[in-house]
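INFO batch 0412 | record 1 of 1 | parsing
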Amino acid sequence: MADQDRAAQLNRLLGRADLRAVPEARRALRELLRGWGKPGRSETAELLTSELVTNALVHTDDDALLTATVSSAGLRVEVRDCAARRPRPGAPIPDEGTHGRGLVLVESLADTWGVRAQGGGKVVWFELGAGAA
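INFO prediction complete | emitting tokens
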């Protein structure tokens, strides 16, 4: 990401299956993003971050690590977990409530996103440009 000398970063360890980490991660990200981007970008970033954090806590059996890096060029959020299984966006199953929609949101709202293997697990990430509306 460009402008790394002025980048700010958030690193947060997310306890195994501790869903209280989701609103805490949103608050920490909101603080990191004060004054960043155009209106609505921070809200989108919070939504997408909570989706990745929730997925990591619900679908794995260990801690996860949230890293968010913001600069004048944009935001990159990564959630690292211990599960090697790669998530895939898919159509939500009827009568399954809100399950199955997270990666569909990430895919449709992020400027770019992806998954990469790391160690015995993976990192799911997304990026938002500061200037996009």
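INFO post-check: The mean pLDDT is 85.
INFO record closed
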